[in-house]
Every structure is written in C-alpha cells, then in structure tokens.
C-alpha cells in the first residue's frame, strides 16, 4: 500500500535519486524547493525567498545570498508556503472530503480534527496530532470557536473560486512511535474544506480541486437526506433540520461521477481502469435516521470500538459496511454501490454523526458535539495506507 501511495506522486522514491513531492498548499508536484531567509534585518526584505545551488546538512540548510545568515526554512517554489518536513520525506497524506452541498463536510472536518487531537491519536498509538504553520489557529477560528465555544452550527462554505482565503488547507503533523521498529513516525495530514457548490461542474472542479487527484484517500460524504426511500420514513421536521433548512444540492451520484471523471483525466486512466485511491463512502447525519434502523443492525448503533481497543478493528469495519449495504437495499438506493464498484478498486461504507444524538436543534444553537463513529473512515484510510504501524 505504501508503494501505491508513492506512485500517486507524493513521494521521494525510497533510496533512488528521484525526488518529488506534492506541496500541501497548492497541490502541485515539484522536484525541488527554495529557502526563505528568517533574518528580520535581511537586506533582501523580511521574508526573502532564494534558490540555492549548494545546500548543506543533507539539503536542510542554506545560506541567504543577501545577508549570509543560515536558514532551515524550506518553501514551495511556486506558492512559497512553508513545507513540512514529512512532506519532503514523502509522507504526505492528503484526505479529500467531498460531497454535495449541505452533506455535512464542514461539520465533519470541524469535529474530526478536534477528536484527532484530543482523543483519537492519543488513544490509538499514543500519537499526537499537531497543527503545522497557522493551521491550528485557522482551524480554531473557523471551526472550533463556533462548534465548541459559541455552540453554533457552521455556515455553508463559500465558493473557493474568488476567495483565496477560504481555500487554504488545514495541515497537521501526526506523530507516534512505531510498534514495529520503535522509531518516531511523522505523517503530514492535509484537509481541505471544499464548498459543495464548487463540485457542481467539472470546469470549476479542475481548478479549485486539483487536490482530489493527489489525495491518498477520499471521504465521500453522502447525505442521507438525499435518499427519497429514507426521507419518506422520517418526520418532516427532522428532514428540514438535518438538511440545512432545505438547501437542495447536487445529488451524490452526480458528484461521484464527476470526481471519477476528474481523476481519470488527471491520471490518464481509461474508462475501464479502476481508480486506485481508496474511497470511504460515508453516510453523514447518522443521528437523523437512527430511529428507523431495523433492530437487527446492531454494529452501526454501537459506539466505535477502535479507540477503546487502541487499534483498528477490521472486522468491525466489515460489519458496518455490510449493514449499510442492507440499509441501501431497503431504501432502494443501490446506485451508489454500482458507481463505486465500477470505478474504484477499494471502497467501504461507513456512517457518522458529527454532532451526535439529539443535537440538531432548529435554532442553530447546539450542544458541544459528541460524535458517533466519526473516527471510522479516517482510521480505515490510515490503516489500509499503512499509516498506523
Ligand atoms: N443532524 C445532523 N445534522 C448535521 C450533521 N452534520 C451536519 N449537519 C447539518 O447539515 C447541514 C449542512 O452541514 P455542513 O457541514 O455545513 O455541510 P457542507 O457539506 O459543508 O455544505 P457546503 O459547505 O455548502 O458544501 C447543517 O444544517 C448542519 O447542521 C450531523 O452530524 N447531524
Ligand atoms: Mg461546508
Ligand atoms: Zn505550493
Ligand atoms: Zn537574508
């Protein structure tokens, strides 16, 4: 699996001289980097960026040509953003979170990052999830302050086309000591909150969402409120609340089709080649349909076992997958399955609630999120990508 991730272009090919990485800010691939001078009195200006012919300390250090001070700060040659060390070591893990308008992407990102920092990383392998650059500050401002301090639902995400600031990714370093070789591992996780609006046509997608094609895993959020066979069983107040006050977006089928098209053209795949990026197909807003789940489907109702056990439990993920398939069958919504089956080599179904049970009041004010099974899709992607050992 690690080999496969390398082929996706994120990595310096182990041992060989070929060096290539994907910038986690602009998502372009490069085979070199630049340095930025950190000397405030540098005659080149406060943040002078320079190219170097000769680097020292294995390429970690260079001397500023203007002030002759050493610098360790490596930056992208195109967007000039600071590069995390594990990006350059080929340990990027770009997770694309895609789904139609109002499918719950922003709430998912807002809650999963909080949980990764506070609970998931520490419990799984004594790991830590640490913000890189200003990511943690930006995360707090956009997500945590609203969800956890002000106890407010998030607003729908603005389009990234004319708005550079909203399209900055959130970058985190995930560190832990490997059980296998007892060495500290560090992976760079990159989350990007797309506006569902920007997934509506392929022209917009190819400019705003280059990152999808470079990702190590895709989380497709599927809005249960978009399945007529399910919605007809719920009381209408619920449906309205859980669908962002009735915003009707593009259907999940259409988005899967466009995402697949985009990846195929970017990676030069034919219609019959299956896409190798693993897909977690995730029904969001589990709390909204829990009441109509048949009694015999017990796994999805139980809390997620992975963190408690301190490792990823594959058998649980398989049971969740088969219970969701049974539900899709019951609701007459098998179209997702055939699309995924015909286009992706590896996928699995999940369901999450970001807000938790009884936590979606119509007023917009919520209790602190207490999510259900939110870690499952992330841990599955990490586990099949070899990122947990
Ligand atoms: N019941 C329930 N509602 C949720 C949950 N997560 C999100 N919602 C509701 O779904 C609506 C849309 O959520 P967002 O996270 O903003 O959706 P989005 O996918 O980011 O939408 P865009 O930014 O427009 O693409 C909001 O009204 C949320 O309150 C959840 O776990 N449970
Ligand atoms: Mg959003
Ligand atoms: Zn860049
Ligand atoms: Zn300088």
Enumerate the spans where pLDDT stays under 50 for 5 or more consecutive residues.
1-16
Number of strands: 14
Which ions, cofactors or small ligands are bound in this entry?
Answer: guanosine-5'-triphosphate, magnesium ion, zinc ion
Under CATH, the topology can be stated as Rossmann fold
The CATH class name reads Alpha Beta
Q: How many structural domains does the protein architecture include? A: 1
User: How do the strands of the widest beta sheet line up side by side?
Assistant: 9-10-11-8-12-13-14
Q: What does this entry look like structurally?
A:
- The chain is of the alpha/beta class and 389 residues long.
- The longest helix is centred in the first third of the chain and has 21 residues, at 105-125.
- The chain is globular.
- The chain has a single domain (90-384), classed as P-loop containing nucleotide triphosphate hydrolases (Rossmann fold), CATH 3.40.50.
- 33% of the residues lie in helices and 16% in strands.
- Strands 9-10-11-8-12-13-14 form a 7-stranded mixed β-sheet.
- It has helices at 2-10, 85-88, 105-125, 135-149, 202-208, 210-213, 228-231, 236-242, 252-267, 286-289, 306-309, 314-330, 335-343, 376-384, and strands at residues 21-22, 29-30, 34-36, 49-50, 62-63, 70-71, 74-75, 92-99, 128-131, 170-177, 184-193, 217-222, 279-283, 347-351.
- It binds guanosine-5'-triphosphate, magnesium ion (MG) and zinc ion (2 copies).
- Guanosine-5'-triphosphate is lined by residues 99, 101-107, 153-154, 156-157, 195-196, 242, 244, 284-285, 287-288, 353-355, 360.
